Amino acid sequence: MFDIKWIRDSPQAFDEGMSRRGLGPQAARILDLDDARREHVAKVQDAQQARNAASKKIGAAKAQGDEAAAQAAIDEVAKLKSFLQSGEEKERELSAALTDALSTLDNIPADDVPDGDDEADNVETHRHGEQPVFDFEPKEHWELGETLGQMDFDAAAKLSGSRFVVLNRGLARLERALGQFMVDLHTEEHGYSEVAPPVLVRSEVLFGVGTLPKFEDDLFKTSDGRYLIPTSEAPLTNLVRESILNEDYLPRRYTALTNCFRAEAGSAGRDTRGMLRQHQFAKCELVSITTPDESDAEQQRMVGCAEEVLKRLGLHYRVVKLCTGDLGFSARRTLDIEVWLPGQDTFREISSCSTCGDFQARRMNARYRPEGEKQPVHVHTLNGSGIAVGRALIAVMENYQNADGSIRVPEVLQPYMGGKTVIEAA
Protein backbone atom coordinates (compact mmCIF):
# COMPACT_ATOMS: atom_id res chain seq x y z
CA MET A 1 0.00 0.00 0.00
CA PHE A 2 1.20 3.48 -0.80
CA ASP A 3 1.04 6.80 1.00
CA ILE A 4 -1.45 8.89 -0.98
CA LYS A 5 0.30 12.06 0.21
CA TRP A 6 3.57 10.84 -1.32
CA ILE A 7 1.83 10.05 -4.61
CA ARG A 8 0.35 13.57 -4.65
CA ASP A 9 3.74 15.12 -3.89
CA SER A 10 5.73 12.86 -6.24
CA PRO A 11 3.48 11.65 -9.08
CA GLN A 12 6.35 11.34 -11.56
CA ALA A 13 8.45 9.20 -9.21
CA PHE A 14 5.41 7.02 -8.53
CA ASP A 15 4.75 6.50 -12.25
CA GLU A 16 8.41 5.75 -12.88
CA GLY A 17 8.24 3.04 -10.20
CA MET A 18 5.09 1.62 -11.76
CA SER A 19 6.78 1.64 -15.16
CA ARG A 20 9.64 -0.45 -13.79
CA ARG A 21 6.98 -2.96 -12.71
CA GLY A 22 5.69 -3.13 -16.28
CA LEU A 23 2.61 -1.02 -15.53
CA GLY A 24 1.40 2.13 -17.25
CA PRO A 25 1.06 5.50 -15.48
CA GLN A 26 -1.10 5.19 -12.38
CA ALA A 27 -0.75 8.51 -10.53
CA ALA A 28 -3.46 10.40 -12.45
CA ARG A 29 -6.02 7.64 -11.91
CA ILE A 30 -5.21 7.35 -8.21
CA LEU A 31 -5.25 11.12 -7.68
CA ASP A 32 -8.59 11.43 -9.53
CA LEU A 33 -10.07 8.92 -7.10
CA ASP A 34 -8.58 10.79 -4.17
CA ASP A 35 -9.79 14.15 -5.51
CA ALA A 36 -13.33 12.81 -5.82
CA ARG A 37 -13.16 11.49 -2.26
CA ARG A 38 -11.72 14.74 -0.89
CA GLU A 39 -14.27 16.88 -2.75
CA HIS A 40 -17.12 14.79 -1.42
CA VAL A 41 -15.72 14.83 2.13
CA ALA A 42 -15.60 18.64 1.94
CA LYS A 43 -19.27 18.72 0.86
CA VAL A 44 -20.23 16.44 3.77
CA GLN A 45 -18.34 18.64 6.22
CA ASP A 46 -20.03 21.76 4.84
CA ALA A 47 -23.41 20.06 5.17
CA GLN A 48 -22.67 19.11 8.78
CA GLN A 49 -21.80 22.69 9.60
CA ALA A 50 -24.93 23.93 7.82
CA ARG A 51 -27.07 21.44 9.76
CA ASN A 52 -25.58 22.59 13.06
CA ALA A 53 -26.25 26.22 12.13
CA ALA A 54 -29.83 25.44 11.06
CA SER A 55 -30.46 23.54 14.31
CA LYS A 56 -29.46 26.63 16.25
CA LYS A 57 -31.85 28.71 14.13
CA ILE A 58 -34.76 26.51 15.19
CA GLY A 59 -34.27 27.30 18.86
CA ALA A 60 -33.67 31.00 18.23
CA ALA A 61 -36.76 31.34 16.01
CA LYS A 62 -39.01 29.56 18.51
CA ALA A 63 -37.67 31.74 21.32
CA GLN A 64 -38.74 34.77 19.28
CA GLY A 65 -42.10 33.23 18.42
CA ASP A 66 -41.29 33.16 14.71
CA GLU A 67 -42.89 29.84 13.75
CA ALA A 68 -42.36 30.39 10.02
CA ALA A 69 -38.63 30.84 10.48
CA ALA A 70 -38.55 27.85 12.83
CA GLN A 71 -40.32 25.64 10.28
CA ALA A 72 -38.00 26.80 7.51
CA ALA A 73 -35.03 25.85 9.66
CA ILE A 74 -36.63 22.48 10.47
CA ASP A 75 -37.14 21.80 6.76
CA GLU A 76 -33.51 22.74 6.08
CA VAL A 77 -32.25 20.37 8.81
CA ALA A 78 -34.34 17.52 7.39
CA LYS A 79 -32.97 18.15 3.89
CA LEU A 80 -29.40 18.26 5.15
CA LYS A 81 -29.93 15.13 7.25
CA SER A 82 -31.08 13.23 4.17
CA PHE A 83 -28.01 14.42 2.23
CA LEU A 84 -25.69 13.45 5.08
CA GLN A 85 -27.13 9.94 5.30
CA SER A 86 -26.57 9.30 1.60
CA GLY A 87 -23.34 11.29 1.69
CA GLU A 88 -21.78 9.11 4.36
CA GLU A 89 -22.52 6.00 2.30
CA LYS A 90 -21.02 7.61 -0.79
CA GLU A 91 -17.95 8.61 1.22
CA ARG A 92 -17.46 4.96 2.21
CA GLU A 93 -17.81 3.91 -1.44
CA LEU A 94 -15.27 6.50 -2.63
CA SER A 95 -12.83 5.55 0.13
CA ALA A 96 -13.24 1.86 -0.74
CA ALA A 97 -12.60 2.57 -4.43
CA LEU A 98 -9.37 4.38 -3.57
CA THR A 99 -8.26 1.61 -1.20
CA ASP A 100 -9.05 -1.06 -3.80
CA ALA A 101 -7.03 0.79 -6.43
CA LEU A 102 -4.04 1.21 -4.12
CA SER A 103 -4.16 -2.34 -2.75
CA THR A 104 -3.64 -4.03 -6.12
CA LEU A 105 -0.55 -2.04 -7.18
CA ASP A 106 2.83 -3.72 -6.78
CA ASN A 107 5.46 -2.25 -4.49
CA ILE A 108 8.02 0.06 -6.12
CA PRO A 109 11.42 -1.61 -6.67
CA ALA A 110 14.48 -0.33 -4.84
CA ASP A 111 16.91 1.70 -6.95
CA ASP A 112 19.49 -1.11 -7.06
CA VAL A 113 17.07 -3.74 -8.36
CA PRO A 114 18.01 -4.63 -11.97
CA ASP A 115 15.41 -3.98 -14.65
CA GLY A 116 14.28 -7.04 -16.57
CA ASP A 117 11.37 -9.10 -17.82
CA ASP A 118 11.73 -12.45 -16.06
CA GLU A 119 14.10 -14.81 -14.22
CA ALA A 120 16.49 -14.79 -17.18
CA ASP A 121 17.35 -11.20 -16.24
CA ASN A 122 18.15 -11.93 -12.59
CA VAL A 123 21.70 -11.10 -11.53
CA GLU A 124 23.92 -13.58 -9.70
CA THR A 125 25.76 -12.01 -6.76
CA HIS A 126 27.92 -14.90 -5.50
CA ARG A 127 28.30 -18.67 -5.12
CA HIS A 128 29.36 -20.94 -2.29
CA GLY A 129 31.00 -24.33 -2.48
CA GLU A 130 31.59 -26.64 -5.42
CA GLN A 131 29.32 -28.90 -7.41
CA PRO A 132 29.67 -32.50 -6.17
CA VAL A 133 31.35 -34.94 -8.53
CA PHE A 134 29.86 -38.41 -9.01
CA ASP A 135 31.35 -41.50 -10.63
CA PHE A 136 27.83 -42.52 -11.65
CA GLU A 137 24.82 -40.79 -13.19
CA PRO A 138 23.06 -38.98 -10.31
CA LYS A 139 19.33 -39.59 -10.01
CA GLU A 140 16.54 -37.18 -9.26
CA HIS A 141 15.01 -37.20 -5.78
CA TRP A 142 11.77 -38.89 -6.77
CA GLU A 143 13.68 -41.78 -8.37
CA LEU A 144 15.76 -42.18 -5.23
CA GLY A 145 12.76 -41.93 -2.91
CA GLU A 146 10.65 -44.43 -4.80
CA THR A 147 13.55 -46.88 -5.09
CA LEU A 148 14.08 -46.63 -1.34
CA GLY A 149 10.37 -47.31 -0.86
CA GLN A 150 10.10 -44.21 1.32
CA MET A 151 8.51 -41.63 -1.01
CA ASP A 152 5.04 -42.62 -2.17
CA PHE A 153 3.16 -40.39 -4.60
CA ASP A 154 0.56 -43.04 -5.50
CA ALA A 155 -0.55 -43.40 -1.88
CA ALA A 156 -0.74 -39.61 -1.55
CA ALA A 157 -2.88 -39.40 -4.70
CA LYS A 158 -5.36 -41.87 -3.18
CA LEU A 159 -5.54 -39.75 -0.05
CA SER A 160 -5.47 -36.22 -1.45
CA GLY A 161 -4.90 -36.10 -5.21
CA SER A 162 -1.93 -34.79 -7.17
CA ARG A 163 0.89 -32.63 -5.75
CA PHE A 164 1.01 -34.46 -2.43
CA VAL A 165 3.49 -37.01 -1.12
CA VAL A 166 3.68 -39.60 1.64
CA LEU A 167 7.13 -39.89 3.23
CA ASN A 168 7.92 -42.74 5.57
CA ARG A 169 10.70 -44.23 7.68
CA GLY A 170 14.09 -42.66 7.05
CA LEU A 171 12.95 -39.91 4.69
CA ALA A 172 10.10 -38.89 7.01
CA ARG A 173 12.58 -38.59 9.85
CA LEU A 174 15.09 -36.76 7.66
CA GLU A 175 12.49 -34.14 6.75
CA ARG A 176 11.65 -33.68 10.44
CA ALA A 177 15.35 -33.47 11.30
CA LEU A 178 15.90 -30.74 8.72
CA GLY A 179 13.11 -28.58 10.14
CA GLN A 180 14.27 -29.01 13.72
CA PHE A 181 17.87 -28.24 12.76
CA MET A 182 16.81 -25.00 11.06
CA VAL A 183 14.73 -23.74 13.98
CA ASP A 184 17.48 -24.60 16.47
CA LEU A 185 20.07 -22.76 14.38
CA HIS A 186 17.96 -19.62 13.97
CA THR A 187 16.87 -19.44 17.59
CA GLU A 188 20.10 -20.46 19.32
CA GLU A 189 22.62 -18.70 17.08
CA HIS A 190 20.80 -16.12 14.97
CA GLY A 191 18.63 -14.45 17.59
CA TYR A 192 15.18 -15.28 16.21
CA SER A 193 12.26 -15.93 18.55
CA GLU A 194 10.41 -19.16 17.81
CA VAL A 195 6.67 -18.81 17.27
CA ALA A 196 4.02 -21.49 16.77
CA PRO A 197 1.34 -19.52 14.87
CA PRO A 198 -2.08 -20.61 13.62
CA VAL A 199 -2.13 -21.96 10.08
CA LEU A 200 -5.71 -20.72 9.62
CA VAL A 201 -5.97 -16.93 9.43
CA ARG A 202 -8.50 -14.20 8.69
CA SER A 203 -8.58 -12.42 5.36
CA GLU A 204 -7.22 -9.18 6.84
CA VAL A 205 -4.01 -11.01 7.83
CA LEU A 206 -3.37 -12.00 4.21
CA PHE A 207 -4.36 -8.53 3.04
CA GLY A 208 -1.75 -7.15 5.43
CA VAL A 209 1.13 -8.97 3.71
CA GLY A 210 -0.21 -8.35 0.20
CA THR A 211 -1.49 -11.85 -0.63
CA LEU A 212 -5.08 -10.65 -0.81
CA PRO A 213 -6.84 -9.55 -2.89
CA LYS A 214 -4.50 -10.19 -5.82
CA PHE A 215 -3.57 -13.84 -5.20
CA GLU A 216 -6.77 -15.35 -3.84
CA ASP A 217 -6.78 -18.04 -6.54
CA ASP A 218 -3.57 -19.46 -5.07
CA LEU A 219 -5.10 -19.93 -1.60
CA PHE A 220 -7.16 -22.63 0.09
CA LYS A 221 -10.23 -21.06 1.72
CA THR A 222 -12.28 -22.74 4.45
CA SER A 223 -16.06 -22.83 4.67
CA ASP A 224 -16.05 -20.21 7.44
CA GLY A 225 -14.11 -17.65 5.38
CA ARG A 226 -10.63 -18.22 6.78
CA TYR A 227 -7.56 -19.24 4.79
CA LEU A 228 -4.82 -21.82 5.13
CA ILE A 229 -1.52 -19.94 5.17
CA PRO A 230 0.65 -20.08 2.02
CA THR A 231 3.61 -19.23 4.28
CA SER A 232 3.96 -18.31 7.95
CA GLU A 233 5.12 -14.87 6.82
CA ALA A 234 1.43 -13.93 7.09
CA PRO A 235 0.82 -14.63 10.81
CA LEU A 236 4.37 -13.71 11.88
CA THR A 237 4.37 -10.29 10.20
CA ASN A 238 0.88 -9.55 11.49
CA LEU A 239 1.99 -10.03 15.09
CA VAL A 240 2.65 -6.27 15.05
CA ARG A 241 -0.47 -5.21 13.14
CA GLU A 242 -2.42 -2.26 14.53
CA SER A 243 0.39 -1.51 16.97
CA ILE A 244 2.63 1.41 17.87
CA LEU A 245 5.94 0.00 19.08
CA ASN A 246 8.70 1.69 20.99
CA GLU A 247 11.91 2.04 18.99
CA ASP A 248 13.89 0.09 21.58
CA TYR A 249 11.56 -2.88 20.91
CA LEU A 250 13.04 -3.16 17.41
CA PRO A 251 14.22 -5.15 15.61
CA ARG A 252 11.83 -8.02 16.19
CA ARG A 253 12.95 -11.30 14.63
CA TYR A 254 10.55 -14.24 14.42
CA THR A 255 10.92 -17.77 13.09
CA ALA A 256 8.36 -20.54 12.70
CA LEU A 257 8.32 -24.07 11.31
CA THR A 258 4.88 -24.71 9.85
CA ASN A 259 3.05 -26.54 7.16
CA CYS A 260 2.12 -24.22 4.29
CA PHE A 261 -0.60 -24.63 1.67
CA ARG A 262 -0.75 -23.35 -1.91
CA ALA A 263 -3.19 -24.11 -4.68
CA GLU A 264 -0.43 -23.62 -7.30
CA ALA A 265 -3.14 -22.27 -9.60
CA GLY A 266 -0.66 -20.91 -12.12
CA SER A 267 1.66 -23.93 -12.16
CA ALA A 268 -0.17 -26.35 -14.42
CA GLY A 269 2.37 -28.58 -16.14
CA ARG A 270 5.33 -27.30 -14.07
CA ASP A 271 7.34 -29.66 -11.85
CA THR A 272 4.69 -32.36 -11.99
CA ARG A 273 7.16 -35.12 -11.05
CA GLY A 274 8.44 -35.31 -7.51
CA MET A 275 7.89 -32.95 -4.59
CA LEU A 276 9.36 -29.66 -5.81
CA ARG A 277 5.96 -27.98 -6.10
CA GLN A 278 3.41 -29.31 -3.62
CA HIS A 279 0.04 -28.18 -2.28
CA GLN A 280 1.28 -28.86 1.26
CA PHE A 281 4.88 -28.38 2.38
CA ALA A 282 6.92 -27.50 5.46
CA LYS A 283 8.93 -24.30 5.64
CA CYS A 284 11.03 -22.56 8.23
CA GLU A 285 10.18 -18.86 7.89
CA LEU A 286 12.14 -15.80 9.00
CA VAL A 287 10.44 -12.43 9.61
CA SER A 288 11.99 -9.17 10.78
CA ILE A 289 10.30 -5.97 11.90
CA THR A 290 12.70 -3.04 11.96
CA THR A 291 13.23 0.67 11.36
CA PRO A 292 13.67 2.22 7.90
CA ASP A 293 17.34 2.96 8.58
CA GLU A 294 18.10 -0.68 9.35
CA SER A 295 16.00 -2.57 6.80
CA ASP A 296 18.66 -2.91 4.09
CA ALA A 297 21.23 -4.22 6.57
CA GLU A 298 18.60 -6.53 8.04
CA GLN A 299 17.99 -8.07 4.61
CA GLN A 300 21.68 -8.88 4.23
CA ARG A 301 21.66 -10.39 7.72
CA MET A 302 18.62 -12.52 6.89
CA VAL A 303 20.21 -13.81 3.69
CA GLY A 304 23.29 -14.75 5.72
CA CYS A 305 21.15 -16.69 8.20
CA ALA A 306 19.50 -18.66 5.39
CA GLU A 307 22.87 -19.26 3.71
CA GLU A 308 24.26 -20.68 6.94
CA VAL A 309 21.72 -23.51 6.79
CA LEU A 310 23.06 -24.60 3.41
CA LYS A 311 26.69 -24.13 4.44
CA ARG A 312 26.25 -26.46 7.40
CA LEU A 313 24.49 -28.98 5.20
CA GLY A 314 27.46 -28.82 2.85
CA LEU A 315 25.38 -27.84 -0.17
CA HIS A 316 26.53 -25.86 -3.21
CA TYR A 317 24.39 -22.78 -3.90
CA ARG A 318 24.30 -19.36 -5.47
CA VAL A 319 22.56 -16.08 -4.56
CA VAL A 320 20.76 -14.01 -7.20
CA LYS A 321 19.15 -10.58 -7.07
CA LEU A 322 15.73 -10.66 -8.72
CA CYS A 323 14.98 -8.25 -11.54
CA THR A 324 11.87 -6.07 -11.63
CA GLY A 325 9.97 -8.56 -13.79
CA ASP A 326 10.54 -11.42 -11.33
CA LEU A 327 10.00 -9.43 -8.13
CA GLY A 328 7.15 -10.44 -5.82
CA PHE A 329 4.12 -8.19 -5.31
CA SER A 330 5.08 -6.79 -1.89
CA ALA A 331 8.86 -6.76 -2.27
CA ARG A 332 11.16 -3.78 -2.90
CA ARG A 333 14.15 -6.07 -3.29
CA THR A 334 14.52 -9.86 -3.22
CA LEU A 335 17.58 -12.05 -3.00
CA ASP A 336 16.99 -15.68 -3.92
CA ILE A 337 19.20 -18.55 -2.80
CA GLU A 338 19.32 -21.35 -5.35
CA VAL A 339 20.69 -24.74 -4.37
CA TRP A 340 22.42 -27.11 -6.78
CA LEU A 341 20.44 -30.25 -7.64
CA PRO A 342 22.72 -32.76 -9.40
CA GLY A 343 19.80 -34.97 -10.45
CA GLN A 344 18.36 -32.04 -12.42
CA ASP A 345 21.80 -30.65 -13.26
CA THR A 346 20.66 -27.14 -12.36
CA PHE A 347 20.11 -24.63 -9.56
CA ARG A 348 16.63 -24.37 -8.00
CA GLU A 349 15.28 -21.76 -5.62
CA ILE A 350 15.30 -22.83 -1.99
CA SER A 351 14.96 -19.45 -0.24
CA SER A 352 13.73 -15.94 -1.02
CA CYS A 353 14.62 -13.05 1.30
CA SER A 354 12.72 -9.83 0.66
CA THR A 355 12.53 -6.36 2.11
CA CYS A 356 9.12 -4.75 1.73
CA GLY A 357 9.83 -1.29 3.10
CA ASP A 358 6.69 0.15 4.69
CA PHE A 359 4.44 -1.42 2.02
CA GLN A 360 3.04 -4.15 4.30
CA ALA A 361 3.16 -1.95 7.41
CA ARG A 362 0.72 0.52 5.84
CA ARG A 363 -1.68 -2.32 5.05
CA MET A 364 -1.40 -3.58 8.66
CA ASN A 365 -1.17 -0.13 10.31
CA ALA A 366 2.02 -1.24 12.08
CA ARG A 367 4.06 1.69 13.40
CA TYR A 368 6.76 2.64 15.87
CA ARG A 369 7.62 5.84 17.68
CA PRO A 370 11.19 7.01 17.01
CA GLU A 371 13.01 8.01 20.14
CA GLY A 372 12.43 11.69 20.93
CA GLU A 373 9.64 12.03 18.33
CA LYS A 374 5.94 12.56 18.96
CA GLN A 375 4.56 11.17 15.72
CA PRO A 376 4.80 7.43 15.01
CA VAL A 377 6.01 6.21 11.62
CA HIS A 378 5.54 2.92 9.83
CA VAL A 379 7.94 0.06 10.49
CA HIS A 380 9.73 -1.82 7.73
CA THR A 381 9.04 -5.53 7.30
CA LEU A 382 11.20 -8.31 5.86
CA ASN A 383 10.60 -11.99 5.25
CA GLY A 384 12.61 -14.95 4.05
CA SER A 385 12.72 -18.72 3.87
CA GLY A 386 15.13 -20.12 6.36
CA ILE A 387 14.63 -22.50 4.49
CA ALA A 388 12.05 -24.54 2.54
CA VAL A 389 12.21 -27.94 4.25
CA GLY A 390 10.92 -30.06 1.37
CA ARG A 391 13.38 -28.56 -1.08
CA ALA A 392 16.17 -29.01 1.45
CA LEU A 393 15.22 -32.68 1.65
CA ILE A 394 15.42 -32.89 -2.14
CA ALA A 395 18.83 -31.21 -2.12
CA VAL A 396 20.22 -33.52 0.56
CA MET A 397 18.92 -36.60 -1.23
CA GLU A 398 20.40 -35.64 -4.59
CA ASN A 399 23.73 -34.32 -3.28
CA TYR A 400 24.31 -37.13 -0.75
CA GLN A 401 23.19 -40.06 -2.91
CA ASN A 402 25.30 -43.18 -3.33
CA ALA A 403 25.59 -45.38 -6.40
CA ASP A 404 23.35 -48.03 -4.76
CA GLY A 405 20.58 -45.47 -4.18
CA SER A 406 21.16 -45.03 -0.46
CA ILE A 407 21.42 -41.53 1.05
CA ARG A 408 24.21 -40.39 3.37
CA VAL A 409 23.01 -38.26 6.28
CA PRO A 410 24.86 -34.92 6.59
CA GLU A 411 26.91 -34.82 9.77
CA VAL A 412 25.00 -31.84 11.20
CA LEU A 413 21.73 -33.83 10.99
CA GLN A 414 22.97 -37.07 12.51
CA PRO A 415 22.14 -36.05 16.12
CA TYR A 416 18.54 -35.44 14.96
CA MET A 417 18.51 -38.88 13.29
CA GLY A 418 19.47 -40.86 16.37
CA GLY A 419 23.02 -41.21 15.08
CA LYS A 420 21.91 -42.73 11.77
CA THR A 421 24.46 -42.09 9.03
CA VAL A 422 22.84 -43.70 5.97
CA ILE A 423 19.25 -44.11 4.78
CA GLU A 424 18.84 -47.40 2.97
CA ALA A 425 15.96 -49.38 1.59
CA ALA A 426 14.22 -51.52 4.21
Walk me through what this model shows:
The protein folds into 2 domains: 100 residues, Serine-tRNA synthetase, tRNA binding domain (Helix Hairpins, Orthogonal Bundle); 305 residues, Bira Bifunctional Protein, Domain 2 (BirA Bifunctional Protein, domain 2). Helix content is 41%, strand content 20%. It contains 12 helices and 17 strands. Strands 1-10-11-12-15-9-8-4 form an 8-stranded mixed sheet. A hairpin with a 4-residue loop joins strand 11 and strand 12. Helix 3 packs antiparallel against helix 4, helix 5 packs across helix 12 and helix 7 crosses helix 12.
List the helices and strands and how they pair.
Elements: H1 4-9, H2 11-20, H3 27-63, H4 67-103, E1 123-128, H5 141-148, E2 151-152, H6 153-160, E3 166-167, H7 169-188, E4 193-194, E5 200-201, H8 203-209, E6 227-228, H9 233-237, E7 243-246, E8 252-261, E9 280-290, H10 295-313, E10 317-321, E11 333-341, E12 346-355, H11 359-364, E13 366-369, E14 377-378, E15 380-388, H12 389-399, E16 407-408, E17 422-423
Parallel strand pairs: 4-8, 7-13
Antiparallel strand pairs: 1-10, 2-3, 5-6, 8-9, 9-15, 10-11, 11-12, 12-15, 13-14, 16-17
